[in-house]
Design goal:
single chain; alpha/beta; Rossmann fold; Arc Repressor Mutant, subunit A; 3 domains; 3-stranded antiparallel sheet; 16 helices; AAA_16; heme
Length: 398
């Protein structure tokens, strides 16, 4: 089949041609946008799930919905060891610009507060090159969001931002990807700011996305975070949604799948959105004609698996040290021995026993893998892969 017309799009955060299986989340967010803009109470939102389930794609889709409502939006990606002030200031600068507030005095005040919040990161006596600002012409507002206490400053910043949005009858959405990588102080400040917003009724919401242990990260920071956010677990697609993700783009190109081919695709991909796109692309390129058959899927499977082995699994495996790779392999072996489903959490003590070592001696390797985002711990004493089918990849690798 013509590779130029291949409709599938495997890529990190790249929106697929058919965003299947997320209608419920999109519809619920439309309600949130309307309620918040009208000053009605609504919780901020947190999306959680493994890598490859489409969290970033959905986060971007939710942001797009907010933009269509005339909201001001800003997005940032949290990174380990990076403070919140600078990336958040850049995101909020964009959000303020999108709001289109016509009162220049009010606009300059809020932009000045954003600038003040950003520059406080440099500290007193910093050199000119360190006096960073996100391209804001307005002068910094002294005495507002610049105390140096991130919790106090973020509450003040969001309060002023919410007031500006309320003036025009709109809202502001702050979209944070990889939210689990925020520092402890920044997480605490973000929770406190969201708590203040929920009490004041100001039209500002935070929409975060992260790995499955993100709720535990938030709860460890502020006990009330369990009531502060609406948590949505983003998982693999149902059979019906997976079929739609394949059939709808193909139909746009006057192509189709035989029923047995769709069944074979679901068996191969497990319903994970990234895998669906990867297999879809490979099958399309290698299938001689439409309709695509189960035999076409079988022929293309090695090509898709090779692509995933290099780009999806391999790139993560290469980030691990030899000792960390031993730990990962032991996790995969323990899951098989205990007949756990691929991706289920296993006991850290069982991993240590498999390696013939004491759990305490493996803490450095485990902590490093956590920081690298290769594993996560949803509950004390247990560990799991952040990537679906990673254990299978390790076992096949040998």
């Amino acid at each position: 089949m013509d590779p130029i017309r291949n409709p599938y799009a495997p890529g990190a955060g790249q929106r697929p041609p058919e965003l299947a299986g997320r209608d419920e989340q999109l519809a619920a967010f439309e309600v949130v946008l309307e309620r918040v803009a009208k000053g009605r109470p609504e919780r901020s939102l947190v999306l959680t799930g493994l890598r490859g389930v489409g969290k970033t794609v959905l986060l971007n889709a939710l942001r797009g919905a907010a933009v269509r409502k005339g909201w001001g939006t800003g997005k940032l990606e949290a990174r380990p060891g990076q403070g919140l002030r600078r990336p958040l200031s850049s995101a909020l600068h964009q959000a303020v610009r999108e709001l289109g507030h016509r009162d220049e005095e009010s606009l300059d005040h809020v932009l000045g507060v954003v600038k003040s919040f950003a520059q406080r990161d440099a500290g007193s006596g910093a050199k000119i090159r360190d006096q960073w600002s996100p391209g804001i012409d307005a002068p910094a507002v002294r005495g507002r969001a610049d105390s140096g206490d991130i919790e106090i400053d973020l509450v003040e910043l969001f309060t002023d931002l919410g007031g500006l949005a309320a003036d025009v009858g709109k809202g502001v959405g702050v979209f944070i990807d990889e939210m689990q990588d925020l520092g402890a102080d920044d997480v605490s400040a973000l929770c406190a700011a969201c708590h203040e917003l929920s009490q004041s009724g100001l039209p500002v919401i935070v929409v975060g996305a992260g790995l499955p242990h993100l709720p535990a990260v938030l709860s460890a920071s502020k006990s009330y975070s369990e009531r502060l956010f609406r948590y949505q677990r983003i998982d693999r697609l149902s059979r019906e949604a997976a079929d739609r993700a394949l059939e709808a783009p193909a139909a746009e190109e006057d192509a189709a799948y035989e029923p047995d081919a769709l069944a074979a695709m679901y068996d191969a991909t497990g319903g994970y959105p990234y895998f669906i796109q990867a297999y879809g692309k490979a099958v399309w390129d290698l299938a001689p004609r439409s309709p695509i058959t189960a035999a076409d899927v079988a022929v293309a499977a090695p090509e898709a698996e090779s692509e995933l082995a290099v780009g999806f699994f391999g790139s993560r495996y290469e980030r691990a040290t030899p000792g960390e790779r031993d730990y990962l392999m032991a996790m995969a072996d323990v899951a098989v021995e205990q007949d756990e489903a691929d991706g289920d959490a296993v006991l850290s003590s069982d991993v240590a026993a498999r390696l013939g070592k004491k759990p305490q001696s493996l803490s450095p390797a485990r902590d490093s893998l956590l920081k690298k985002g290769l594993v996560y711990s949803g509950e004390r004493g247990r560990i799991a892969f952040t990537v679906p089918h990673f254990g299978r990849y390790l076992r096949e690798r040998g």
